[in-house]
Amino acid sequence: MGYLVVALQDSSGGIELDRDAPIRKQLQAMARVASRSISTVIDGTSVRYPQFDWRHLLLVGHSLGGDSSAQFSADNPSRVSSFISLDSRRVALPRSAGIHVLTIRASDTTADPGVLPNKKERGYYGTCVVHIKGSRHKDMQDAGSEQLKAKIVSAIDTFLAPAQHPKYACDRDSKLE
User: Fold this and answer.
1) Helices marked H in the chain — which ranges?
2) Phi, psi of 121 (to 5 degrees)
3) Is 60 exposed, middle or buried, given 0-12, 13-18 or 19+ CB atoms closer than 10 A?
4) Which residues contact 166 (CB under 8 A, 6 or more apart)?
5) What is the distance, to the nearest Å, from the Cα of residue 129 to the centroid of all Cα atoms in its chain?
6) Quick count: other Cβ atoms within 10 Å of Cβ 84?
7) Can you say whether residue 44 is alpha, beta or left, with left for phi > 0 and alpha for psi between -120 and 50 degrees?
8) What pLDDT is attached to residue 71?
9) For tag attachment on the chain, is the N or C end more exposed, with fewer CB atoms within 10 Å?
């Protein structure tokens, strides 16, 4: 599809969770550190690959990776054109007409209050929310079932498909069986 993929691993600066302390604030702090790591990697990679458009990024992240990408979008809204979240749960998804959002939700988790746009915000900003029935958060990865991965890829393909208006397409608030 013409995208250059840059993948980060362990971009939280070595911060470890304290299981005896509130998890939400710790994960939000990790996402802030990871947002800075994303910025550093993008700045460095853009020098090596100047032929790509580094002003209109598509960010994709699962779980903490999605939270980190959402934080990066909040910190750098003019650099991000679209964002795909695979069941991120702690950092608010972008609410901006300039950032097209797809969030794919698992069945066994819920996002913290304020993370997902409400119905009015989804309509206003064009946020796509796709629930995959029977899916589990931990299976939204390479080791997940082929069936689940196919549903995720289908939702992403629909979102990225060329369309006249809106630029990004989705079945609004769909549920994949």
Assistant:
1) 23-48, 64-75, 119-125, 146-160
2) -65, -40
3) middle
4) 100, 126
5) 11
6) 24
7) alpha
8) 92
9) C
Question: What angle do helix axes 64-75 and 23-48 make, rounded to 10 degrees?
Answer: 70
CA dihedral in degrees (63, 66, 67, 72; nearest 10)? 160
With cut-offs at 50, 70 and 90, classify the pLDDT of residue 166: very low
Distance between CA atoms of residues 70 and 57, nearest Å? 12
- The burial of 139, by beta-carbon neighbours within 10 Å (0-12 exposed, 13-18 middle, 19 or more buried), is given as middle
Q: Number of C-alpha atoms within 13 angstroms, CB side, residue 66?
A: 25
What tokens does 120 get?
């009015």
Q: Do 64 and 115 contact (CB within 8 A), yes or no?
A: no
pLDDT of residue 114: 95
- Which residues are within 8 A (CB) of 13 and not within 5 positions of it... i.e. 6 or more apart? 30, 33, 34, 37
* Number of CB atoms found within 10 A of residue 48's CB: 7
Alpha carbon of residue 19 to chain centroid: 25
Tokens at 121, concatenated: 């915000």
